[in-house]
From TrEMBL:
InterPro entries the UniProt entry points to: Beta-barrel_TonB_sf
Broad class of the protein's primary localization: membrane
Tagged with keyword Nucleus: no
SUPFAM superfamilies: Porins (SSF56935)
Source species of the chain: Dawidia cretensis
Signal peptide: 1-27
This protein's GO CC annotations: cell outer membrane
Keywords: Cell outer membrane, Membrane, Signal
Subcellular location: Cell outer membrane
Annotated protein name in UniProt: TonB-dependent receptor
Length: 554
């Protein structure tokens, strides 16, 4: 405000000066001299402004108004024309599979070195889907063996009939069969004359079995079976076995299930110096499977076993039966178990392990007092799976094979009445690509700590197994398998000491060429490295073996 007043005063003074100059100029023009004048400017008025009041109150914002603009809908019809497309569709014609296309049987014939004929035949009905009947015939023998030609020949012959019938409610099945397994006691000392007629041994087994079960999947499933078998050898051994078994399960919901297994077996054996005496074994195993926590699946139960073998002071045994599965990831599961039980041992089971048994051998069941294990199961995609684990077992009455003192070609059983501790560390890998490529590899390490015996005889401590197959354009099928094991020990009665057996390495291969869907030829090579490793002390296996033949499907 003051600045404006000063500016006005300056303008007024300037105008007065201009007027004065104009008068002076005019006077100069008239007289020719400048007149002396004095101009006095006095400020006589003082302008006083009152102090302004400042207002700090904020101006309130104007409230927003909800303005709803009217919405107008306008529907317009669009019409367009496109050229009509005419697609020619034809149904895919699949070849009808007739009953002749489904092979109901096959016949395989072959022959190999060591005078080894092969005959295998299978015939099965294919017209009635509710009934199934089949017959199987097998013979494979070798007239010569690894020791003294015919003195070590062996062979297996079997024939069986099987049938099944299905209805809406139940399924019935049954089978009857006969098997003959022949060998020779060729583990005699070298350069010792023997009578070949006294070397031959043969086991004849007759079997009859049947079962009934529910035919359709339901919450409650059951199966009841019965079996009978009779074994006789070339000498005086006779064994009869009758068994009943029952299994059932009930699904409470999607994740929970209860199950029950029960088995009853009566075994009666008679030998040259053994009178017939029934050996009973009754086992009951109830379990309850349920999710104990998030992702943790548990199976909890117990095993009750009753047996009347005279080697054990107790007849009744009770064991825990607990199993757990926990997913560490979508493709990796951790598993664990704690269980036990009675392992059935009979002359029939022993003969499948060792054909060169002596007469009147001792036979008792094995008591697995504790069996604990942990492991990992992994799935690498849809084709690869891997397994690894560790198990610890305590065993009572575990048997071992030892050669006889008077006749080293025959084996007796010795039992460890103490507690045998067994450790098993294993790892396995498998690969499967449909039916084209398959591969499996497994390695096992066993550790034994004997109880009353000095050693556990004729049991390997390391074992490696592998097999593979490759189908080339459905025309050539190649397969191979490998078995390698070591660490076996045996008791040499003639020297009264424990000896270590040589390790085994057995490589086998097979090739089959399909001339047509119904006819093929094959070549099979066994023990390619010709390693005469011992199965048992004084019993080497055959060296390199070759077998060729044909297969006809019909």
């Amino acid at each position: 405000m003051k600045g404006m007043i000063y500016r006005k005063l300056k303008i007024s003074a300037l105008m007065l000066m201009l007027v004065g100059v104009s008068f002076a100029t005019r006077a100069q023009d008239e007289t020719g001299e400048l007149e002396s004048r004095e101009i006095v400017i006095e400020k006589v008025r003082e302008i006083t402004l009152r102090k302004a009041n400042r207002n700090f109150e904020k101006i309130p914002p104007r409230p927003a108004e909800n303005i709803k603009a009217p919405m107008t809908y306008d529907f317009q019809s669009f019409s367009f024309q496109a050229p009509q497309v005419t697609t020619q569709m034809r149904p895919l014609k699949l070849k009808q599979e007739t009953s002749r296309d489904v092979h109901g049987g096959y016949l395989r014939l072959g022959y190999g070195n060591y005078s080894s004929p092969l005959l295998e035949a299978y015939l099965n009905t294919r017209k009635d889907k509710n009934k199934l009947l089949g017959a199987y015939l097998y013979h494979h023998s070798s007239g010569k063996g690894p020791v003294d030609g015919k003195n070590s020949g062996s062979g297996t012959t079997g024939i069986s009939l099987a049938g099944s019938s299905f209805s809406d409610a139940i399924a019935l099945s049954g089978n009857v069969g006969f098997e003959n397994r022949t060998t020779h006691f060729y583990g005699y000392p070298e350069a010792v004359p023997v009578d070949r007629d006294t070397l031959k041994q043969a086991y004849n087994i007759f079997r009859l079995a049947g079962a009934i079960s529910n035919a359709k999947n339901s919450d409650f499933a059951y199966k009841l079976g019965a079996g009978f078998s009779f074994l006789s050898d070339k000498f005086d051994a006779r064994e009869t076995e009758v068994g009943l078994n029952f299994g059932s399960s009930y699904e409470i919901d999607e994740d929970s299930k209860i199950a029950l297994k029960a088995d009853y077996t009566v075994i009666t054996r008679k030998d040259a110096h053994i009178d017939a005496k029934p050996r009973s074994l009754f086992v009951v195993n109830p379990t309850y499977n349920f999710p104990a926590a998030e992702d943790l699946q548990l199976s909890v139960g117990f095993v009750v076993a009753y047996e009347n073998d005279s080697i054990d002071s107790k007849d009744l045994h009770v064991y825990p039966d607990v199993r757990a599965t926990y997913p560490l990831s979508p493709t990796v599961d951790a598993v664990a178990f704690l269980t036990g039980g009675i392992e059935k041992v009979s002359l029939q089971t022993l003969s499948y392990e060792n054909l060169w048994l002596a007469p009147d051998i001792a036979i008792f069941h094995t008591n697995k007092t504790l069996d604990f294990g942990v492991g990992i199961n992994a799935r690498l995609g849809n084709k690869v799976s891997a397994h690894a684990g560790l198990s610890l077992s305590t065993l009572k009455n575990l048997y071992s094979y030892v050669n006889g003192f008077e006749d080293q070609s025959k084996f007796y059983t010795v039992y460890d009445k103490g507690t045998t501790k067994r450790t098993n560390l294993y790892a396995a890998l498998s690969y499967a690509q449909s039916e084209q490529v398959k591969f499996m590899l497994r390695g096992d390490f066993y550790g034994y700590n004997a109880g009353d015996l000095d050693e556990v005889y004729h049991r390997p401590t390391t074992k490696l197994t592998a097999n593979a197959s490759y189908n080339i354009y459905q025309k050539i099928i190649l397969s191979a398998d490998l078995i390698a094991q070591g660490g076996m020990k045996a008791y040499d009665a003639t020297q009264d000491k424990t000896v270590k057996l040589d390790g085994a390495f057995d490589l086998n291969a097979k090739a089959e060429y399909l001339f047509s869907p119904t006819f093929s030829a094959f070549v099979q090579l066994n023990n390619i490295t010709s390693n005469k490793y011992p199965l048992y002390l004084h019993y080497p296996v055959r060296a390199f073996q070759a077998l060729a033949g044909i297969t006809w499907s019909f």
